[in-house]
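From the pipeline queue, job 12 of 40. The input is one protein chain; the requested action is below.

Action: predict structure.
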Amino acid sequence: MKRLLEKLTLVMFLGATIILTSCGDDEETTPQAGLPSISASLHVNGSASSSAMPGDSVSFSLTATAEGGINRIVALAGTTPILDKSYLDLGLTPGSTTSDVEGSISPWPSASDAGTTWEFSFVVVDDLNQVDTTTVSLDITSPEAKVQTAKLLYPPTGDGNSQTFYAIAQNKIYTHSEVTGTAEAVSPNIDLGYYYGGTDMATLAAISEYPEGVFDVSAWGTKNATKLIETSITLETYTALSTVADVEAEFENVDFSAQDGVTSLLAVGDVLAFETVAGLQGFIYVSDLEVGGDSNDYIELEFILAAAAE
């Protein structure tokens, strides 16, 4: 659904159109009844609300009264009618003075709508061509992005028991022994591993690119080809990311065309972009580093995902 930001003058223009096309007599009539009234509210996932997130269901309910008899009720998203019913369509008899109407709004908000405001107008016309209009707004917000902090990965050790490998979606660190020492399919979950090389130094690598000369993962049933590339994003830009929409917007600037699944010579403050084979996207911030390939050396990482916080 496109942005629904329209001026009230458009609604009044529509109201004038309704007056001209309503089912009242063609002859001029002097009103003998009070002005009609309409009130409306929006509901998000079944509860009254003035804001929604992508994927939420949105509906409306309204109450119209008219001493002069309800003739027509119209609901608009911006200037697009989403409801247009005569008193007959509403199941009313001539001269009915009240009507309660409910309806759904489709399509629901999508990720591209985050940061916009949808405006809805509701109009009642009575049999005397008198009109009342009310307008309500819905802010489309983005959920907070999921942040996974203080993930320590260690260089691989010969016994296979170092916490070297990471499954991003699971937010879980694995050892090589945990992958190969069970009949369960663990390797499909794991997205990257860490090592410290004499030339590469601090390095993160997709499992598909993890060098056998460092540690042999050939026994793994699945070796995920995670996309991984270092970015020029500053710490200030990274820390400003807070919502899923923020992450998605920044991710539009990422170009994986030069990536080979390996990022080397990492240092504190570096920001990497990743995309898993399952399509999960986000950024990795190198928050700490103990240089070296010994068992007590490590890299500390923080992840922010294009996924809603739980």
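Job complete. The chain has a mean pLDDT of 91.
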